[in-house]
Amino acid sequence: MPSFDIVTETEQEEIRNAADNSQRELSTRFDFKGVEAEFEYNKDSIKLIAEADFQLDQMVTMLRGQLAKRNVDPRSIKLSDTEHSGKTFRKTATFIQGIDAPTAKKIVKLIKDSKLKVQASIQGEQVRVTGKKRDDLQAVMQLIRGSDLELPFQFNNFRD
């Protein structure tokens, strides 16, 4: 039976490259000359550090631009609230990996409500969809792309 998996993943390599490119862009920008500001890449997040709150907003815009150049969906970024300590402002950008349980349940409900002849099951941090016809599976893909769920979804492991 044909099947595929619905997942939410971001490539760590692309995130690291975007952080490095943002740091390079930061060093060449005139409005950041003489300002202590930096992007710190960790394994699962990027810390943005600047001297003022408006500079953090500019840094977020730079980071999103670099991520867009690298084909990382902007919906995969979760920004923390601004933290102020001493003379620095900090913000952390984390990236979504996997589908959480409530969102997976919404996906399964959306698929079942569509009355397509497919079965959807939650398997850890992904949703497996199986059906008899390939066309039904492609209709599910279109349904998920057109949904208003605020996550970037990829479709992996398509088996015929």
Give your account of this protein's structure.
By secondary structure, the chain is an alpha+beta fold. The chain folds into two domains: 3-8 and 98-159, 2-Layer Sandwich (Alpha-Beta Plaits), CATH 3.30.70; 12-95, Alpha-Beta Plaits (2-Layer Sandwich). The protein is built from four helices and nine strands. The strands form two sheets. Strands 2, 3, 4, 5 and 6 form a five-stranded antiparallel β-sheet that branches. Helix 1 (12-28) crosses helix 2 (53-69). The N and C termini lie close together (7 Å).
Topology:
Blueprint: E1 3-7, H1 12-28, E2 38-41, E3 45-50, H2 53-69, E4 77-79, E5 83-85, E6 88-95, H3 101-113, E7 118-123, E8 126-131, H4 134-146, E9 154-159
Antiparallel strand pairs: 1-8, 1-9, 2-3, 3-6, 4-6, 5-6, 7-8
Helix pairs in contact: 1-2
The CATH superfamily name of the largest domain is YajQ-like, domain 2
Mean pLDDT: 87
Bin the helical content.
Answer: 25-40%
The CATH level-2 architecture of the largest domain is identified as 2-Layer Sandwich
Q: How many β-strand stretches?
A: 9
The string of secondary-structure elements, in order, is: EHEEHEEEHEEHE
The CATH topology of the largest domain is Alpha-Beta Plaits
Q: What brief labels describe this structure?
A:
Alpha-Beta Plaits, alpha+beta, single chain, 2 domains, 4-stranded antiparallel beta sheet
Summarize it.
By secondary structure, the chain is an alpha+beta fold.
